[in-house]
Amino acid sequence: MEFELVAFGLITGFTSGFFGIGGGSILIPMLLLANYGMKEAVAISIMQMVFSSIYGSFLNSKKIKGLVRDGVILGIGASLGGATSGYFLPKVPDIYLQYLFITALLYTIYTLFKAPASSNIQKEDKSVYVLLAIGYFVGILAMSIGIGGSLVLLPILVGFLKYDLKIATALGLFFVIFSSIGGFISTSIYGNMLYYEGAIIGIGSLIGVYFGIKIKEKTQATSYKTFVLLLNLLVLVVTIYKTVF
User: Fold this and answer.
1) Within 13 Å, how many C-alpha atoms sit on residue 84's CB side?
2) Do residues 100 and 144 touch, judged by C-beta distance below 8 A?
3) Which spans in the chain are helix H?
4) Residue 10 φ then ψ, to 5°
5) What is the pLDDT of residues 148-160, one digit of tens each?
6) Would 170 disulfide with which of 13, 39, 60, 125, CB 3.0-4.6 Å?
7) Which one, of 220, 11, 13, 239, lies nearest residue 108 by Cα?
8) What does the alpha-carbon distance between residue 144 and residue 205 come to, in Å, rounded to a whole number?
9) What global pTM score does this model have?
């Protein structure tokens, strides 16, 4: 079982670094297929995201500048939302969490399909209140379904705030630090955290994150958008299959 968990960590870490996601969107379906319950998978995913998001954002900070202001504001909102999620999570049946996850995937695929692969539009500073509100509600949704928030935040950053796709994914991973820590604290307080499994997968993800970011830097914008869409389609198919069957 430990070897399987390490493998999950490597795969999840790579996708986290490459796509700028917390990793829950790929880890949760794998855990479900390995016969973990939805709430167990959510808890493990949250702990893994703490590992991958901190290390991945450290690596990204060496290459991308100027995202600290928006990232911190979004992150503060996400921390508040993530902390709130621990109150709602035990009250919601597993099947409804899976339906919510599917809805988030459909929304992301639709909006990213319409968005350009890259953008040269000059970004203006956004309202602090708008960023806080976005971070808060994305944080609640993300931690309730065990994802870092990038899955939902990414199309907002690209379509509404007009970030370049690669920069948006780096900011999305930075955002995951706040939402995952808030969710980790909240889930631990309510006694739902699986520390052993989460730590094994989290440590494995550190290696995957490093290589994911390196390959992302060498990938052209058009190809990168295609990969992002394919990932979301794959996760959608697996999740629907597990929910129906």
Assistant:
1) 14
2) yes
3) 2-19, 24-33, 38-60, 68-88, 94-114, 128-145, 150-159, 165-189, 195-217, 221-244
4) -60, -45
5) 677 778 778 887 8
6) 60
7) 239
8) 22
9) 0.76
